[in-house]
Every structure is written in C-alpha cells, then in structure tokens.
Amino acid sequence: MNHRSTGHLTYKDRSVLLKYHRLLDGVHPHPPNSLAALHQILADGPEAIEFDISLTKDGAFVLLHDSSLERETTGRGLLREITEGQFKALRLRDSDEPAATLDDAVAALRGVDRPLKVQADLTEQEPLPGEIAARLVQMLARLRENSGLRVVVGSTADWNLRILRRLDPTLALGFDFASYLDAPVDSLARLPIRINAYGYLDDHPLGYRRLMSSGAYLEDRVDVLLGLLPGACEFYLRKEFVLQALADGFNPVRFVHQRKPGVLVDIWTLNASDPDFARAFQAVLEAGADQVTTDTPARLAEFAARDG
Known about the structure:
Layout lengths: L1 E4 L2 E4 L2 E7 L14 H10 L3 E8 L5 E2 L21 H5 L13 H8 L6 E7 L7 H15 L4 E7 L2 H10 L4 E4 L38 H12 L8 E5 H9 L4 H8 L4 E5 L8 H11 L3 E4 L2 H11 L1
Parallel strand pairs: 3-4, 3-11, 4-6, 6-7, 7-8, 8-9, 9-10, 10-11
Antiparallel strand pairs: 1-2, 2-3, 4-5
C-alpha cells in the first residue's frame, strides 16, 4: 500500500478515494458540518467531501446530521420544530460558529477551481414534498454549474432519491441500503428492527429461519436491494456490514461491482482511532473498496505510506 495524497490512496494499482466525512478531517478543531471545517479542508486538497443536509420547519435545507439539535448545536429539540432563521441563530457545539445552511455551503463551493466530488447526504426520511424537492434540485444545479465539481446526492431513503431522479434524471445519486440490511452495530431503535437467523439486521422474511448458507442469503438480499434505485452511480456500505459479510464468505463489494459495473462502492466510516483499525482497513481495501469515508484521511494516508 502507498499513497499519493490525502485525497486518495493507491492500493494494488487501484486509486481509492478518501472521502472527508461530515467535513471533518480528524485534525482541525472545527465542528463537523461547519463552514470553518469546509474552508479548512478545501485548503487541504481533498478529492471527495461529504456533508449532511436536513430540513427545518419551514422547508430550508441546513447542514445537520441528526434529527435533533442537542448533539451538534446549542439548541434543544427537533430540527423540524424550528425555522431556518432560528437554526442560523444557534451555535455549533463547543464553538462560537453559527450553524450553516446549504445555501452557505453552495456559496462557499461555487468558487472552487479544481476537480472535487461533493456528496450531499440527504438525511430526510419523510417523503420530500414536490416543491421542496424541486428547490433542492435547483440549489444543487447552482453547484453543478461549476464544471470542476461533481455533485452526488446520497441517502438511505431510496424513495426520496427516486423523487429527485424524476425531477432531474441527470442528477448523480448514491444509495445506502442500511435501512433494509445492516450489521447489528448499536442499540439504537431504527430500521431494520430485527436481528435475523443469519445475524444481520434485516426484517425480510428470507431471514426468519436459516434455510440456506449465509452467502446465498446475502447474495439474494443484496441483489434485490441494488435494484431499488436504477441508475445509482454509488453505493455506500457500512464497514461493520462488510466485515461481517466477509467473515461469512460473501464479498459485498465485489458483488456490487459484478452486478453494477462501473459504480463506485464506498465503505463507511473507517477511522484510524477504531479498534483493530489496521485489520479492518486492510480487509476493506482487499475487498475492492473504491472509496473510504473517514474522519481521519491524513492518518489513513500516513498509515498506508508506512505500510507500503
């Protein structure tokens, strides 16, 4: 393994992108999803960045990961209960920086004068009303006017991605099927709600009893899920799901590549501070990952350089 920059690694003659997760590179002191973080990492020279977008009460898109305000801002309660103006009056947690909107991010990115992939991660789970979906497409169109930027909208809500696709068939979309099939990595109440007979979070009847091998079960389930968003250019797989599937003899990254030639497969989120980081990093690279989502791209690049 060797690296060329903190924007990507070279592994076995393959270029593997390092995507800056939530605009946080694990080194600078700025809060995630903040304008200060955006300006800092643009100076660092990334090739792929990601930020989260969520909706306020009055239908404005803002940079926030959670549905509630407490973890990321000085506010309390649900984002959907406050207006854009009230959100902008908040400060990001442990800083004096105002919370940012998608308009702020668009303004900061429009002047970028080099190639950069920008992923807007749409966290909204409720179906987007037509007017709000159209507004999002229009806002992203302002970014796409910059020929150096490649804009991708990612989400676990395939229904919202299909809404955006109907409004603009040229918009690049990426799908994360973790709401249908995932590894049991935490105790949060979310979809899927059941650990099935194969040890995966999956509410589908195929997993009620163990009637086939784990590999055959995973092949069928992933094959179906890949069809939920025709034309998707990226798929996002949780690191823990990939590692569990590999241990069960099924390589989901290779399978996606076989079923969807030319798509990018991203593994999220892999940080240098993770337990057993070196083994996990090697495993996802060996599995064929095209992109790794990380809070610590510089440290991943340093590790790869030492390992190489």
